[in-house]
Amino acid sequence: MNILLDTMWAAQLAGSGDAGQWEHVTKHCDALGGRVFLYAGAVGELQRAVEALLQEQEVAQPAEEARSRIKAFSEGKHWLAALAGEGDVWNAENPAHEQLLRAVSRFDGKCVVLTEDSQLLARGGDRVMSPDFYCALPVSTGVPFINLGIQQDKIRADLERRLHRVLAHGAYINGPEVGLLETMLADYVGVQHCIGVSSGTDALLIAMMALGIGAGDEVITTPFTFIATGEMIAFLGAKPVFVDIDPKTYNLDPALIEAAITPRTKAIMPVSLYGQCADMDAINAVACKHGLPVIEDAAQSFGALYKDRKSCGLSLIGATSFFPSKPLGGYGDGGAIFTNDEALAKAMREIREHGQDRRYHHPRIGLNGRLDALQAAVLLAKMPLFDQERCDRVRVGNRYKQELQGIEGLILPYVAPDNTSVYAQFTLQVPDRETFVDVLKAAGIPTAVHYPVPLHLQPAFDALAQGKGAFPVSESIAERVVSLPMHPYMTDAEQDQIIAAVRSAFHG
Ligand SMILES: Cc1ncc(COP(=O)(O)O)c(C=O)c1O
Prior knowledge:
Layout: E1 2-5, H1 7-16, H2 20-31, E2 36-39, H3 43-56, H4 62-74, E3 78-80, H5 95-105, E4 111-114, H6 118-124, E5 128-129, H7 131-135, H8 149-169, H9 176-189, E6 193-197, H10 200-210, E7 218-221, H11 227-235, E8 239-242, E9 265-269, H12 280-289, E10 295-297, E11 305-306, E12 309-310, E13 317-321, E14 335-339, H13 342-351, H14 373-404, E15 419-420, E16 426-429, H15 433-442, H16 472-480, E17 481-484, H17 492-507
Parallel strand pairs: 1-2, 1-4, 2-3, 4-5, 7-8, 7-9, 10-13
Antiparallel strand pairs: 6-14, 11-12, 11-15, 13-14, 16-17
The site of pyridoxal-5'-phosphate has 15 residues, from helix 10 and helix 11.
């Protein structure tokens, strides 16, 4: 539960310079996984109130002292922006209180105003709490599967500035943020062209459309992936030709590809699963021998390294997703396509915009597959953190591996020597998944299964008539995989709790 400090109470705390009376509240807020906000719309009021207190205490130079005390007090707290709807409060009995109550309502019950003011306490109902009441709230012992809130705290000011800029210029479609992001991402990956699109799914679709893939064609891919990979092949009327995976990396096994190539094969689409690139050089070599294009489904691997080169830039086309939980995730749907091929880049740009090469001129069939400016603004705000987050994912992944090694029956993620995984998921293999999940759940640890049913066994692909036994590695792994919480801001204490629960699932 987050807290928004009543400005007058904040003034007392800041003015007293005594952290003691406040410490137990911050500790409890931390334990509840909350954050402390100060209302940015009330800085003048805050300063005047602290100054008045200091004057009462006959402190020398109260104005300067007030500034420095507020500055010190606000460290580690977050400034909550005032929104337009919080200005029109003049019918309220107490406009300052009304502002705080409106501001806290934005949090959908996940934030309260903290105050000792009896009038505000009486007026605010369940949106207001006294510090004592707040400190009695029970602490949940669980850990989250992913925590996007910490990242948001770090970028809040830039994020809000960028979002408000879009609201001001109003170019929601094809606004300047999209081009800016595309340039930044192309530079990051080290390719010439990046095309922002509406999702990772559309990235795959648009890439295949640009290659002219359609009815009767075949595309070789893995059955052990999220549905979108095979789904978009089928969506175009083409046939997904599944090839089994490497049992250690869970990625397409390059040694099995050649046998699946037919005269109808039009492309190979490996997936860089869980954040680790497929063996792209080996796959490109087979593709090159047969004159086939390779599309890397890099939805889970943006930022991953393969032989010191970046995912998305390892084959003719790379396609990624900005789904919120992905290594580079937005606050909604989004994706991007990467290539060094000028003609393909032009085709993909046209396809994402109804096949038009200029307004209302449509040389080809396309779709509405654009990335919008607000989403691009979110991603621009996130990019400066990305490399540190990438390193922190590796740190968290390595710590899991270090602490969980040697447990009989537990198979840890294998990262090939040429690879650096971004651990989109940290996925184990366990012999009895149901019991494992139950033990972790009882300990407050959420898990997820990526993915319980390989694509060839999904009813959507019944027409392929590939029953059980067709891809034994994928099938056996799908029965045993389970993912642990993973995000770059996991604390050692949280991770220790997860590690202890995993150990207890094996040793009781
Ligand atoms: C391997 C893979 N491909 C494609 C996608 C589709 O991405 P999006 O959800 O952005 O459409 C995902 C998303 O989970 C994925 O994991």
